[in-house]
Structure formats: C-alpha cells, structure tokens
Fold this sequence. Notes:
By secondary structure, the protein is mainly α. The protein has one domain. Helices cover about 65% and strands about 0% of the residues. The chain has 12 helices and no strands. Keywords: Signal.
Amino acid sequence: MFRKLILLLPLVASLTSACEPLCRHAISQTLADRYIPVIHLAVNELHESLNTNVYHITIPDKLSNTVPEKELQDGIRNTIEDGLDDFTMQATGAMLEEGIYQTLFSGDQPFKGDCNSPKRLDRKKPNEGEDWTREECEKMDYICGNPPSICHFLDMIKTRIVVYLRGYLMEQTQFGSGLLFQSLAPNMKQSIHSTIIRYGAGSLLTDADIMAYVNNIISNTIHSLDVWSHTTVQDICARPEDSDICDGWDEMVIPEILRWP
Length: 261
C-alpha cells in the first residue's frame, strides 16, 4: 500500500500543476473576448449585404397601393436588425467560450497531460502569488496541460480558433437549421405577412405577384447568407486589414494566461 502511495505522488503532483477546469475556462474566456470584435465585424458585413440585396426589391403596385412602402421596408429592416442582434448575442456569449474551450482542450492535440516528460521547466507551478514567466513560456515547447504550453503555442491556438469560427459561422447559415437562417428568412416572411394583414389586405397573401415578391426577398436573403459564408466568413483573420483585430492583442493576453498556476 505504501509503495502504491509513493508511485501515485508524482502523478498527483503532475496533475495539480496542470491547468484545471477553472483555469481552462478562464483562459478560454480571455481568448473569447478577443474574438468578439471579429464576429461583430463579420456580422456587420452581412448586414451591409442584406441592406443591398433585400431592401431594394421592387414592391408590386397592387401592394404599395394598399400598404405604405415604408411600413414594409421598416418591418424588413427591423427583422434583419433584430435577427442579427439576437444571433450576435448568442454567438459572442457562452457559446463562444465553450467553442474555444473545446478547441483547446478536446479533439486533436488538446492542451492536457503531463508537462514533465520531457522536463522543460524547473518548477511544476509558481509559488502562491507568483505567475509563470515569459522564459517558461518560451521553454515549454510541446503541447501539454500547463499555461506556459498554451502561451508557447498561442499562434497555433489562434489558427485553431479561426478555423472553429469559420466552421461555426458557416454552419449557422445552413438552410432550415442554421441559427442565422432561422433568425432571418422565416421572420422576414412573417413580418411582411403581418404588415399586409394589419392594413386589411390579407387577400393579397395568395396573389401570385405578392407571393413572388415575398419569395424574392427570402431568396435574396438566402443568397446573401450563402455568399457571406463563402467570402467574409472564409476570409476571417486572413485579410491584411484584420491584422490588428486578430493578432494585435498578444501582449494583453499572455499575462492573463501566465497568471494561472
């Protein structure tokens, strides 16, 4: 029994020096905070695309003669803004932190495991009240479970996060199931129908020209989502003008990573 206890001690020491769940979630949130502006920028570009492709569809005369054009356009505008606001709130909240957490600590090459084989550092963790150092960040040159390893591979981590973001945002544009699709296309149709009914023109809902008008708006919305997912989303953090927002914060993040034991 005593011999088993002795054998377990190195394992316990190793485990206690790794980044535990509280540390992992804190580091994930620190990184998530840096990608909130990236998501905002991408969604703003989608908003501009929708402005161009949806607002300016010609309204049939038989509809504009009954329902003020401004009422229809305001309803569409509010639906787009509300849908994008709701999506942005979800995409930049707990969902983002959880996605980054999974990217770092699950799947291929997770930042877990023993950081002492081979040994790179002279201590398993800092003394109470101390942080890891930049020198330890440089020395910890293989993937394992301590903050210096996360610090050392920050560029790799940023690449992983960008790949995750691109995949996540593209998934949200999928016809029928994507959160962005659900927030925009069905609600836009409902907004137009509600406005028409409010003005006592419900009989127009089955008119071929009105149905074609509504379908054009939905079609252009879907097209805008598709183009956005294959251009803006795939170019996230790849354009020269994105360098500051995607890479200009290392010196703010590294101390936050290294302060965890």
